[in-house]
């Protein structure tokens, strides 16, 4: 699932291309918006809230989308071929005079009143990538359920928004935290600060890197490396599901560098 940095980069590209420009054509390919025509409205701005994307339009409307597992927005120049996937995966097309934004595989796509955006993102905790990130609130949210595992607490977007399985897994490794450690038994400030620092560092490039080596197969310490040797101690990386179904996630950890409490 795309994490906050991926959504932030998509937001920046869309805002630079569409912000301040009039939509000359819109095409929504989801049942709830099939007859919606937003042509003539101006794209005021595109903003990210955690893993959510908000496209604010003139007239007080907002297009709300969420990438979930494999959704994405692509930008094309007029006449340029679309390469984001087959046509049947297109969910939205937004055209200006200079750009065409195409939304692929978007499982969440809806139109809300801008003044009512809180109905779709109001439940989110502080956004890790926001310039106005409320660190103290994020720490208080995480500390509110001290018996919860640190893995589940970090992935709960109501506590802090933007972090996903990749960063959660890598942060736990870098801090030597077993995935099943309780939130009340870890240094929450160090956990939040490292999460934010890693995500902000990766805003500069498309790949998510925690090792400092931006090459295929070398970007993570433990994420998606089950059965492989730990980069620090050579112990075999382990994996197991964490969390309650149906939202359980796969966790990766080194039994030596991240000992059980």
Short description:
The chain is α+β, with helices and mostly antiparallel strands. The protein has helices at 4-18, 118-121, 135-143, 150-155, 165-174, 188-201; strands at 21-22, 25-28, 42-49, 52-57, 61-66, 72-76, 90-95, 100-104, 108-113, 238-242, 249-253.
Descriptive account of the structure:
With 261 residues, the chain is α+β, with helices and mostly antiparallel strands. The chain folds into two domains: 4-121, Alpha-Beta Barrel (N-terminal domain of MutM-like DNA repair proteins); 135-253, Helicase, Ruva Protein, domain 3 (Orthogonal Bundle), CATH 1.10.8. It has six helices and eleven strands. The strands form three sheets. It has a five-stranded antiparallel beta sheet with strand order 1-3-4-5-9. Strands 2-7-8-6 form a four-stranded antiparallel beta sheet, covered by helices on one side. Helix 5 (165-174) crosses helix 6 (188-201). The longest helix has 15 residues, at 4-18. The model has no long low-confidence stretch (mean pLDDT 94). InterPro entries: FPG_cat (IPR012319), FPG_N (IPR035937), H2TH_FPG (IPR015886), Nei2_N (IPR044090), Ribosomal_uS13-like_H2TH (IPR010979), Znf_DNA_glyclase/AP_lyase (IPR000214). It holds the Pfam family H2TH. It comes from Kribbella ginsengisoli.
């Amino acid at each position: 699932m795309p994490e906050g940095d991926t959504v932030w980069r998509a937001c920046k590209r869309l805002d630079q291309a569409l912000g301040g420009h009039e939509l000359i054509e819109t095409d929504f390919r989801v049942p709830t918006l099939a007859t919606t025509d937003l042509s003539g409205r101006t794209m005021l701005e595109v903003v990210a809230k955690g893993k959510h994307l908000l496209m604010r339009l003139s007239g007080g409307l907002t297009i709300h989308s969420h990438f979930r597992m494999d959704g994405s927005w692509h930008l094309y120049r007029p006449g340029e071929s679309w390469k984001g996937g087959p046509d049947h995966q297109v969910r939205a097309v937004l055209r200006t005079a200079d750009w065409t934004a195409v939304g692929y595989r978007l499982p969440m796509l809806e139109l809300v009143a801008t003044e009512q955006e809180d109905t779709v993102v109001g439940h989110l905790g502080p956004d890790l990538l926001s310039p106005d990130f409320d660190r103290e609130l994020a720490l208080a949210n995480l500390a509110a359920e001290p018996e919860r595992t640190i893995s589940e607490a970090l992935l709960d977007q109501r506590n802090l928004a933007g972090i996903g399985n990749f960063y959660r897994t890598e942060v736990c490794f870098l801090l030597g935290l077993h995935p099943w450690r309780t939130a009340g038994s870890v240094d929450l400030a160090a956990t939040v600060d490292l999460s934010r620092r890693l995500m902000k560092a990766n805003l500069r490039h498309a790949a998510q890197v925690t090792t400092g080596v931006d090459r295929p197969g070398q970007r993570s310490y433990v994420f998606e490396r089950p059965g492989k040797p730990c980069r620090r101690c050579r112990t075999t990386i382990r994996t197991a599901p964490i969390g309650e179904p149906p939202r359980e996630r796969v966790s990766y950890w080194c039994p030596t560098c991240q000992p059980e409490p």
